[in-house]
Amino acid sequence: MTWDAIPNRDDVLRTVMSVAETRRDGHLPWDEVAGATSVFDTPADLVGALQMRWHARLSGAIERELSEQPWDLEQAVVHAWRRASGEMPGLRAVLDAYADEPFMERARAKEWALLATASGLTGMGDPQAIRIGREVERRARAISIETAPPVGAEAPVHRGFLRRLRHALAA
Q1: Which DSSP category does 143 fall into?
Q2: Does residue 156 belong to any structural domain of this protein?
Q3: What pTM, to 2 d.p., does this model score?
Q4: Considering the domain boundaries, does residue 36 fall inside one?
Q5: What's 102's DSSP letter?
Q6: Which of 67, 68, 106, 63 is nearest to 84 (CA)?
Q7: Closest CA to 33 of 89, 92, 102, 21
Q8: Positive or negative CA dihedral for 128, 104, 82, 125?
Q9: Residue 103 domain boundaries
Q10: CB atoms within 10 A of CB 123
């Protein structure tokens, strides 16, 4: 890939994500987005780039949740996964459609390890991290839409150490 192709790649990726978010059907708009077939070698390359965008969004959501609600790590990670999924339902649908493809195996394992370690249920390098992270994701997916807080609804933010400590002690 040349330096000139990088901005074009980002534009194509944004367009693919926009189409996926509009449709939300899990179909990869490989042939429908101008430039996708010239910027990405294969549909698998495009899905891999989408997975990286998802991972960045999920990591940010986890960091945000853990900074706002550090006393129940697992619940914070479940909420972060739900939040990221709700913010990008079309992208999540595409990734779910390709989840069982062999080229997704490594990315999924990294995501599960992130979920497991951020939840405080295991440490880095634990061979059980993938299994534990898969369970954390299963819990996040199992939360019924009716009982989950609306996506984008902000939990009360307790900024500052003393305010967070007071809130934690009151809980």
Answers
A1: S
A2: yes
A3: 0.79
A4: no
A5: G
A6: 63
A7: 21
A8: positive
A9: 43-170
A10: 10
